[in-house]
Amino acid sequence: MTDQLQPMPEDWQRALAIVAHPDDLEYGCASAVATWTDAGREVAYVMVTRGEAGIDTLEPVKAAAVREQEERASAAVVGVSRVEFLGHADGVIEYGTPLRRDLAAAIRRHRPELVITINPDDAWEGTYWNTPDHRAVGRAVLDAAGDAGNRWIFPDAGGEPWNGVRWVAVGGTDSPTHAVDVTDGLERGVRSLLEHRAYIEALTDGDPEAYARGLIEGFALQEAERFGGRPAVTFRLYPR
């Protein structure tokens, strides 16, 4: 029997999504973000890099500008207006105290109850190797959620300590525990990914809309079996 997923908590007002690259949220979580903002919740985004190494045919300085613009447009589609870029180097993010410090500072600035991040596991489905950036950022976010509340850790990072993080939700994992019904947010999830047109066109020769729709609708419908037949975005939830 397929394990059924629990609904994500709804008794919160502010969320902060922290990921490595522009497009990381659009490949999985954006439909859930649209659902949350429709309900009047506040969601902000923090990108650790500007995605400058993500387009083989475009030199990094130009790629960074394009990808930042695409991410802001993508966020706007799902009701997010606050998007920050920390400026770490794309492709070579290192897990360690400098990264934890920057992420703790971001959490203190935004003061979220829910923090969302990307899968830190070594692989998907056992054999699809995860990228170093994803692994480093996901793990650092889980640690920084605690760091942000300790006034003696990174006291020079700015902002008052924030102990208000109640959960960290990891998207894109093979072992989710919770889900969000994205029936009403699914179309905007597709359009949000489609805003990354330069990135998508560098990845595939196919039609960008067909590519985005196939992925986002496919992921959501695949998870419906575990969530009462409803299209879903899934997370592994870590209470704090």
UniProtKB/TrEMBL annotation:
Keyword set, alphabetical order: Zinc
GO biological process, one term: glycoside metabolic process
Entry annotated with the keyword Zinc: yes
InterPro entries on file: GlcNAc_PI_deacetylase-related, LmbE-like_dom_sf
Xref: Gene3D superfamilies: LmbE-like
GO molecular function terms noted in the UniProt entry: hydrolase activity, acting on carbon-nitrogen (but not peptide) bonds, in linear amides
PANTHER family assigned to the protein according to its UniProt record, in alphabetical order: LMBE FAMILY PROTEIN, N-ACETYLGLUCOSAMINYL-PHOSPHATIDYLINOSITOL DE-N-ACETYLASE-RELATED
Protein name, UniProt field: PIG-L family deacetylase
Organism, as annotated: Nonomuraea terrae
